[in-house]
Fold this sequence. Notes:
The chain is of the alpha+beta class. It has helices at residues 24-39, 54-61, 63-86, 139-152, 201-205, 253-259, 265-298, 306-326, 331-338, 342-370, 376-387, 395-403, 405-429, 448-454; strands at 5-11, 15-22, 95-97, 108-115, 119-121, 155-159, 168-176, 186-191, 213-219, 233-247, 301-303. The longest helix has 34 residues, at 265-298.
Amino acid sequence: xxxxxxxxxxxxxxxxxxxxxxxxxxxxxxxxxxxxxxxxxxxxxxxxxxxxxxxxxxxxxxxxxxxxxxxxxxxxxxxxxxxxxxxxxxxxxxxxxxxxxxxxxxxxxxxxxxxxxxxxxxxxxxxxxxxxxxxxxxxxxxxxxxxxxxxxxxxxxxxxxxxxxxxxxxxxxxxxxxxxxxxxxxxxxxxxxxxxxxxxxxxxxxxxxxxxxxxxxxxxxxxxxxxxxxxxxxxxxxxxxxxxxxxxxxxxxxxxxxxxxxxxxxxxxxxxxxxxxxxxxxxxxxxxxxxxxxxxxxxxxxxxxxxxxxxxxxxxxxxxxxxxxxxxxxxxxxxxxxxxxxxxxxxxxxxxxxxxxxxxxxxxxxxxxxxxxxxxxxxxxxxxxxxxxxxxxxxxxxxxxxxxxxxxxxxxxxxxxxxxxxxxxxxxxxxxxxxxxxxxxxxxxxxxxxxxxxxxxxxxxxxxxxxxxxxxxxxxxxxxxxx
Length: 483
């Protein structure tokens, strides 16, 4: 096959239009081959399949059929050749435009518009500095943690007095509203001031004691998680069966021993201080890294195809949905609790998708600019770090998935990006000692991009042009080749 002639025109939105010209000689050669293929499928009296003369095949099957058979070979081959000639790297199926009917007398010209790999141009961040937060732990913070721990270990003692904020009230509640069938009172143990009942409940029960009955009405918001009550005026009839007050344990050595393997209160305080320090250091590291990447992104310009954003948005949507499923919460329930809609959910997913793509592109480009690479030993360590996260029974499969040639490229990108982030942070903080490094802990959850590779069952399909769905001319307009 002689060389096709191809040119590439850059369009907005990280797209390229290829103009492709196939020489006459190639068309005639491929038309002859198409005749042979079609003749094997068409029954022509007096001839074995594949042996009938060209004109009889054209008469029996139609020139349009032979031309379509030719196009199904010529277009993909010419498209692939055009990609090689122009150096264009597609990231999606091309949109073919075959507007002129092919002829065997003149070169065949068609165009293909395709989304291409995104690009990024980094800006100057020389004036950006990031301060390292103070991660020291104060006595007040330790006291606060211990108080929360005491509260979690508290007991409830029945009391004859009236209910006050913070008490637990044993109740039976009947809910009535227009359109609801009457129901028997349902038992609820409710902490006054710390419950999810509609506004007015706490005021209704404060000052009441065992044996009292009280009622109140509330307008239920339209986004309430309980669909049967949304937008209705609901009456709550409350029977109080008892009031209990919270009894906090003494903060002493005995308490310390009751909550863990601690000899005394000082040992518990030391562990609380250590945990607080780790948490603050971890949060500070994230704050520093996020600030560094946002600075890099903020000074850069991007050109990203919409199809890539859509793909990543689908992954974000899948990740967020799975996270809610793991908590036993349906997406619609979650949205109702937050007063959001499906549209806002999709907008958030798209924004997160764009943030992920920009972060990845910016760090890749920064690694390129700084000459950062990942050596063989680093790749092996990363693979084993990811493998260690999975159960023993799955590790061989995960290791095999990550060791594939196409997977190793993703592993390399992850390592390079991490090293680039470290270099970037060092530059923007002036090289001061950082509070934490959460990137090299064994058994940590692997990055999403490596988790997807590690758990993949099959590789992605190759991107090829679809001739059947191209904007082709009507077959009746195909020009009959000369005999």
